[in-house]
Write a structure and sequence with these properties.
alpha/beta, Rossmann fold, 5 helices, 20% strand, globular, 45% helix
């Protein structure tokens, strides 16, 4: 477990419950305190309640998509770090996400170790 990870909170917003569970396990193994939401609306509520340091956010979900959820979150928190997950990156979604100050993108499918590396890089850039 990384010492600095133990103090950091991560919110994962992902509708694929099997992937959500895998990411949660991987992040908890790294020492992060992890919260989960299965759609954008629940993610907004969880963000307001827990105030995470970083959000892992799927773009395409039922009920409310990632861009819409992030727009709502940015109204109250312009500092939270965000890593976008998507199976279908398009120029429009990448542009929309960039306008909302996203730290990094990760295309699905991916290995959990790749996600850990991305999270480590995002946190390292925040510190420097």
């Amino acid at each position: 477990m990384k010492q600095e990870a133990a103090r950091r909170k991560i919110l994962i917003i992902e509708d694929a419950l099997d992937l959500l569970g895998l990411m949660r396990s991987a992040m908890e193994r790294e020492g992060y305190l992890v919260f989960c939401a299965a759609n954008g609306a629940d993610g907004i509520s969880c963000h307001a309640r827990e105030r995470p340091d970083l959000i892992i956010l799927d773009l395409y979900m039922p009920i409310m998509g990632g861009i819409e959820a992030l727009q709502a979150i940015r109204k109250t928190d312009d500092k939270v770090l965000v890593v976008i997950l998507t199976s279908y990156p398009t120029p429009d979604t990448i542009r929309d996400a960039a306008d909302l100050n996203v730290s990094e993108y990760l295309s699905k499918p991916f290995e959990c170790r790749d996600l850990v590396k991305v999270i480590d890089t995002v946190f390292a850039h925040k510190i420097s």
